[in-house]
Design a protein that fits this description.
One of its GO terms (biological process) is negative regulation of neuron projection development. By secondary structure, the chain is mainly alpha-helical. 65% of the residues lie in helices and 8% in strands. The protein has 2 helices and 3 strands, in the order H-E-E-E-H. The chain has a 3-stranded antiparallel beta sheet, with no helix packed on it. A hairpin with a 2-residue loop joins strand 1 and strand 2. The longest helix has 98 residues.
Amino acid sequence: MKELSVLSLICSCFYTQPHPNTIYQYGDMEVKQLDKRASGQSFEVILKSPSDLSPESPMLSSPPKKKDTSLEELQKRLEAAEERRKTQEAQVLKQLAERREHEREVLHKALEENNNFSRQAEEKLNYKMELSKEIREAHLAALRERLREKELHAAEVRRNKEQREEMSG
């Protein structure tokens, strides 16, 4: 059935009164709407016999006539098909080559980025290690200075003590 019959089905669901034109004709078939049932719509489809068809409609029983093809035409068709096949194969090969080139570029870029990241991480680590080493050396130098000052102070205290003992005793 065609769109009009589907439309009439949908419309008949909304409108309970049957449409005055209850017979629809589509080419070689006729659709009649029957009385509405409790379960929904019902239709009767009547196919026309081939003798009822009008003379202006094409005959379905006769297949379309094939024209005789010559050997040259067949050869041309084969050559054209071969050319299309070669063209399609060349296009597929070209696409594959482009895809491989793209993959190589992506891989090269990924390796380059990885190398850059590794180099930057190594430089950052070396900088932090140098900084840590400098801080440690400064801290050790400060400790040595304090220790030297304590030793000097202790030596001065001992000298002062010895001088007191010599004076008192």
